[in-house]
Write a structure and sequence with these properties.
Number of domains: 2
Helix content: 40-55%
CATH class of the largest domain: Alpha Beta
Strand content: 5-15%
CATH topology of the largest domain: Rossmann fold
CATH architecture of the largest domain: 3-Layer(aba) Sandwich
Shape: globular
Strand order of the largest sheet: 5-4-1-6-7-8
Length: 227
């Protein structure tokens, strides 16, 4: 019986995060006078995708490490300002979904998104219901080796909520989410509203693939009937 649902946030509940992050990183580079070809800039960003922004900027500025601290300051000003949040839109029906699910399941979030932005800007902006028992982010973890896709965040949630891995699922949109779930012993459920397309998800041997998070109830019903 499924008791706990762990969600990634970006591209699961809100769309546009990738474009928002890319703008913040680009403006940080421009702010320190570094210009990369668009393809190279994007390649470097996705090489560290999901990591703490300092790790991303290290990759972007690997020829100019002395500019890292200033670039981080600029990036944070854009991220905590409006550059990132203005790119976001909410997937229709998600608020009603989580309110319904919260009456039956424990709901938690494991994300690479900065928790202050999530709690102080995104959730208030979209008037998102306060239904999550626990939110843990890569920003809460000092050891970069324990950040996503390492299963540390998921294991912390399981420990705090006192739930067995077989009683939980993880809903995400990226390969890192699938890896994180499996390494923690959870069943991954992939939504096609983000990074992975259906073919890529099938290649990862994911059994449950849904168009977006609003189709989650059907999967949960099937899983609970299998018990």
């Amino acid at each position: 019986m499924i008791k706990l649902i762990i969600f990634d946030w970006d591209d699961v509940f809100t769309l546009g995060s990738k474009e928002g992050y890319l703008k913040c990183y680009h403006e940080a580079l421009v702010g320190v006078g570094v210009y990369l070809e668009p393809e190279e800039e994007e390649k470097r960003i996705f090489a560290k995708w999901g990591k703490h922004h300092k790790e991303e900027l290290k990759e972007l500025l690997k020829e100019n490490p002395k500019l890292l601290d200033r670039a981080c300051e600029i990036y944070e000003s854009k991220l905590f300002g409006n550059t990132f949040v203005d790119n976001l839109s909410m997937i229709f029906g998600t608020k009603e979904l989580v309110e319904k699910l919260s009456k039956k399941y424990i709901l938690c979030v494991a994300t690479g998104l900065n928790p202050e932005i999530l709690k102080d800007k995104i959730i208030p902006k979209f008037n998102f219901p306060n239904v999550f028992k626990q939110i843990i982010s890569s920003y809460d973890i000092d050891d970069i080796k324990k950040q996503k896709p390492d299963p540390y965040m998921v294991k912390q949630i399981l420990k705090t909520q006192r739930i067995k891995p077989t009683e939980a699922v993880l809903v995400g949109d990226a390969k890192g989410d699938v890896t994180m779930a499996r390494d923690a012993g959870l069943l991954p459920i992939v939504v096609l509203s983000g990074n992975l397309n259906k073919k890529e998800a099938e290649k990862l041997k994911v059994k449950y693939i849904i168009k977006d998070v609003t189709y989650l109830e059907n999967v949960l019903t099937e899983l609970n009937l299998l018990v």
